[in-house]
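ok so I'm stuck.
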Amino acid sequence: MSPAAPSPAYRRLSVEERRAQLLDAALSLFAHRAPEEVSLDDVAEAAGVSRPLVYRYFPGGKQQLYEAALRSAAEELRHCFDAPREGPLLGRLGGALDRYLAFVDSHDAGFTALLQGGSVVETSRTSAIVDGVRRAAAEHILSHLEVTDPGPWLRMTVRVWITAVEAASLIWLDEGKQPPAADLRDWLVEEFTAVLAATAARDEQAAELVRRLAPADG
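replied:
not stuck anymore, here's the structure
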């Protein structure tokens, strides 16, 4: 009788590795179902662990797990607009939108739940996490604009546009991801130039940016 094949060596996960595993499982579930529809048993099953182990890492239960998952998603979203300050501004903006829309696409129907919270789990903390993503995105874009001291009109313009990007993303999911992501990206870049041009009519700082963004042969 031939000897049995050795079983794979078991490796105990570190605290950070186990926590990351549970967050990945939770994010995967929240990506396709609203938070109130996901139980700790669901997370435990997806991660291949026991329910008590989930409680060990998240003693606050589903609310704590959801907030941790939301922070993890928020970090990923923050990085979408954080890119090297190289090349034309509108090209950088298009690249940021490509990353943003890829995130939206990969999280599918859970995008609404991840960014806006469900009726059961939304709290002032989750709202603050989401608002932090929007503010970080605005700061990255203002940095790309290379304006030393952006005034209130320019700040308002950028933040209004970010709100429009989020709304368009949610509508895009509701419309079955149509039009194609590349077309949506181009349209959103055009929306940015349009809203900037509207602000330029009353703000010299925005007007100067419009002149900088104009084609060289314009």
